[in-house]
Structure prediction request, 182 residues.
Amino acid sequence: MAVPDLDNLLALLDDAKCFALVRQHRWPDGVRCPACASSTVIRDGCDETQRSRQRYRCKACSGRFDDLTGTVLAGHHQPLQVWVLCLYFMGLNLSNRQIAAELGLNAADVQAMTEQLRGGLVARTPEVTLAGEVEIDEVYVVAGHKGQPAAVAKKGGSAAAAGWRERRAAARWKRISPPSSA
Ligand SMILES: [Zn+2]
Prediction:
């Protein structure tokens, strides 16, 4: 079976439609700011090299972003068409190896791409924001006696295992998160 000419295959995929597909997946209810989730967003021109890649400005937080900001598709060297084809082949249940052969990529690259795509177009795990009382587990405070020299002396060095919970409790502290700067 003849391997399809990748250049021709990619040329069949309309750039504007690829970006429309991304928008549709990403913002089924209208464009939202990835930074503050506001929907008061205005269009702000387009990318200089990718004319179909729409830019936006958020009126709520003044943040700027575009169709791919914050997606797994941003910052990759593969053109969007390659990602769209990869998605399409995944839908056909092709193996990573088959997709790699069709797209002329190496299997490791395709493995990374399909893993990312399976996780969703937009990374759904938000950055952890610490607030209030934060408990850090599996941390031992071993230096000094935490202001209780008598208790430490009484327990002695051999009580290491028995003192685990107490040490863990001692390792809890309050941390007030810094104002979010993200
Ligand atoms: Zn915003």
In short: Residues 33, 35-36, 38, 58, 60-61, 63 surround zinc ion (CB under 6 Å). Residues 173-178 have pLDDT under 50 and may be disordered. DSSP finds seven helices and five strands in the chain. The two ends are 51 Å apart (CA to CA).
